[in-house]
Amino acid sequence: MTVATLSNADEKNFEMPTVEKQTLSDSRLTLRYTELNSDAKMPTYGSLSAAGADLYSAEDVVVPSNGKYCVSTGLQLEIPIGYYGRVAPRSGLAAKHFIDVGAGVIDSDYRGEVKVLLFNFNATDFEVKKGDRIAQLICEQIGNGTYTEVTNLETTDRGAGGFGSTGQSTMTVQSNTTASTSERIAVRFTQLNENAHAPTYGSEEAAGADLYSAEDVVVPANSKVCVSTAIQMELPFGYYGRVAPRSGLAAKHYIDVGAGVVDSDYRGEVKVLLFNFSKTDFEVKKGDRVAQLVCEKIAHCVYEAASELENTDRGDGGFGSTGKSAMENEPVVKKVKTNQSETGLSSVSIEFTKSTENAHMPTYGSETAAGADLYSAEDVTVPAKGKLCVSTGIHMKLPLGYYGRVAPRSGLAAKHFIDVGAGVIDSDYRGEVKVLLFNFNEADFEVKKGDRIAQIICEQIAFCDYQKVDTLEDTERGAGGFGSTGK
């Protein structure tokens, strides 16, 4: 049996020194945790501005080839209300070992053990040792939606075009939409038929609202199906809906969710693209919970070309994620000026450079699209059942307090079975932005220069200061329903 192993030889843990903690004390949240056993390790940031804190394995396990395993961290967390913890893949594991993370929504009221569901799409088993970094935890700000049914939805230029994501080639109109400032955000929706269900939260503080199937369908083994929910919705400007996997479906049935970006101006039917990586068909009945919708706060970006980018200690090390083991010196951090638009929302400036004449500026497909399209700078082929890091030819500077999430494009996922691996661009990362494409199809996938291959979403995050305590505050939810909507 061939086994791939994870080497931490060049990836030592980084715990932020006191001086560096104080530098960003105003922007960091306190996040309390407990250790369930002696093998548990505190989450740690790989650099001062890293978006995600590394999560460590508390056990020795083997993730079988083309299989999955729920890996113990030995931790319980107390995430502040108004945030959720996104368990995201590590770029190195995805790019080198074809390891992805399934599900990964930790609600603020969840008190069970945090586990990391690893998907191994490789032909060899993957060995995990105690202390290995297996994922990263991003504390993301969210808008908790109150869903209200209405007869009609306000029209937009986008309308029903471009299912869920950036459906137009360019953005031509300045938005004049306003956003609610209330603690609880109203999200209006319509039902397209009698089989539609209103999205519902599984507990008082659940990050995601359950989405229900409006049809009886079968997702074939090692295949995909777009499942109807028969609802249309009106998300507020300044937010997008992330269609996220349900932990139970991922852990028990090897079901993942592809693509899943619902823009605030999208008025078509919300559909859930289910990926079935199991060897058996998966049956979906009307009324089954097939996914969850997380209303995530975003920054709408203005991209500005620059001749060069401000240097950081991180530099171009560690493609996309927490790539350095430590920071020898504290980097100089400039406060980013934000322009207030007519909506009252901050417009975040992102500088970028081009390293090749084939590079394209990221562009929004509609006036309020959550993600800006990323373009290939090369002609490449992603092999069937394989993966490839595609060059964009751009380097960018994201503002402190944000990270760039490289997300799949709905069309590529739905039509060609193409997903995006890893995809965390930290604010201090200065290397080339690359897109790791996973091709789960039986046929090779051809990418040409100028093709739109992914989208980048500028997501607001909370930098956390982890504090060990003896006990956590009780909630009604308690340890029920591992990580997500547990009712």
TrEMBL record:
EC number: 3.6.1.23
Segments forming domain dUTPase-like: 39-167, 195-323, 358-486
UniProt pathway: Pyrimidine metabolism; dUMP biosynthesis; dUMP from dCTP (dUTP route): step 2/2
Single GO MF descriptor: dUTP diphosphatase activity
Superkingdom of source: Eukaryota
Enzymatic reactions: dUTP + H2O = dUMP + diphosphate + H(+)
Biological process terms in GO annotation: dUMP biosynthetic process; dUTP catabolic process
Residue ranges of the TM segments: none
Disordered, as annotated region: 158-177
Function statement: Catalyzes the cleavage of 2'-deoxyuridine 5'-triphosphate (dUTP) into 2'-deoxyuridine 5'-monophosphate (dUMP) and inorganic pyrophosphate and through its action efficiently prevents uracil misincorporation into DNA and at the same time provides dUMP, the substrate for de novo thymidylate biosynthesis. Inhibits peroxisome proliferator-activated receptor (PPAR) activity by binding of its N-terminal to PPAR, preventing the latter's dimerization with retinoid X receptor. Essential for embryonic development.
Family of this protein: Belongs to the dUTPase family.
Name of the featured protein: dUTP diphosphatase
Species: Caenorhabditis nigoni
